[in-house]
Amino acid sequence: MPRGAAVKKRPSVLWFVCAVWVICAACAHPPRAAVDGSPEIDEPSLEEQPLVSPLRVAAAAPKVLTEEKPAPVEKTPMEQALETVQQGATKRYFVAEKDNIAVKADVDVGNRRFTAIYDVDRAEVDLRRSILRTPFSIEDEETHETWTGVFEYEGAPDAGILLAFDDDYHENWERNFGLFDKFDAKVTFFVQGKPLVFCKAALERGHDVGYHTINHLNLPRVSRTKFLEECTAEVDAFRGAGIPLNSFAYPFGLYEPWMSDVLLGHFKILRGYGVTFHIYDASAVRGFVASKAIDNTLYKNDGEFKALILLMLRTVKLTGGVLPLTTHDVSVHADWGIKPDRLEFLLKTAADLKLKFYVYRDFLE
């Protein structure tokens, strides 16, 4: 370079780097006016920015949930039949062969038939609720499928017993008036012979009195004249003494058909006697009634007697209607009579089951 010539200085490397950094920063953060054309506004500080509540934001846009209900499950025919039995929506009936008694019900579901059998032997009385709890099984007659359940029942409103005592055991009957009162039990006494003071005493206590002939003869073996005398000669004397004698019981339960035709001209209702189990619709106790004997001589021991009483009374509780029962004396030793403790068991069982105590005059109309 010639001496004295002007010296041109080159920019330093540091200056060059600073210039590049400024240009890049400007490109990365351009003024707002250069981006959207709006005037540049100073950003507020954090202290100046309004706070937005997260709860308010959530409430502004609620999330709606919809719950889908499951479709109802259709019950099978067996389930429908089982429910029908448990609700008592069936007509129960009994099948009896001597002292073997079964309670059943038929249930139809669509074109299917089911049969329910009630286990009366295992039934239990709930005294607190006055109901009878009876296990049962139900069978599909087509597939033979079997289910089980328990039927709880308060009992038909007409369910009851029609208890009677025959012959001339007036003193023993009267000694048990207190026992009848204890269970609020009313009974019918079929008396023999002529009017007695006992008859008026029984009527005053709410019992009933019927007739059982003068001498307790085997009526099919006597003449028609003797038959009429035995059955009707003293009736007017009773009625004149204020003892209506609306009912009549055949001695030994023996009779011929023509006898009933004659006697229904003198009495409103006639009663037979035997070992067969019967239950009558309360509205159908008319004309003639067959009554089951419960005398001591018919049962081997107390256990057998009590088992049958439970079976019979639970059956009438389940089916409804009127169960006629007949005995004679009230005595420990009488063959044709009932022991006092057996009588008390009968009356207490009927009372626990809330059965009615009917008398024969209840069925005169």
Features:
single chain; six-stranded antiparallel beta sheet; 365 residues; TIM Barrel; 2 domains; alpha/beta
Overall domain count: 2
CATH superfamily of the largest domain: Glycoside hydrolase/deacetylase
User: Given this structure, which CATH class of the largest domain is correct?
Assistant: Alpha Beta
Number of helices: 12
Q: Characterize the main sheet.
A: 8 strands, parallel
What's the shape? Answer: elongated
Spell the H/E element sequence. HHHHEEEEEEEHHEHEHHEHEEHEEEHE
In short:
The protein has 12 helices and 16 strands. It is an alpha/beta fold and 365 residues long.
Structure description:
The structure is a single chain. With 365 residues, this protein is an alpha/beta fold. It has two domains: 77 residues, no CATH class; 204 residues, Alpha-Beta Barrel (TIM Barrel), CATH 3.20.20.370. 30% of the residues lie in helices and 24% in strands. It is built from twelve helices and 16 strands. Strands 7, 8, 9, 10, 11, 12, 13 and 16 form an eight-stranded parallel beta sheet that branches. Strands 1, 2, 3, 4, 5 and 6 form a six-stranded antiparallel beta sheet that branches. Strands 14-15 form a two-stranded parallel sheet. β2 and β3 form a beta hairpin. The longest helix has 18 residues. It starts with 12 loop residues before the first helix and ends in a 7-residue tail after the last strand. The N terminus is likely disordered.
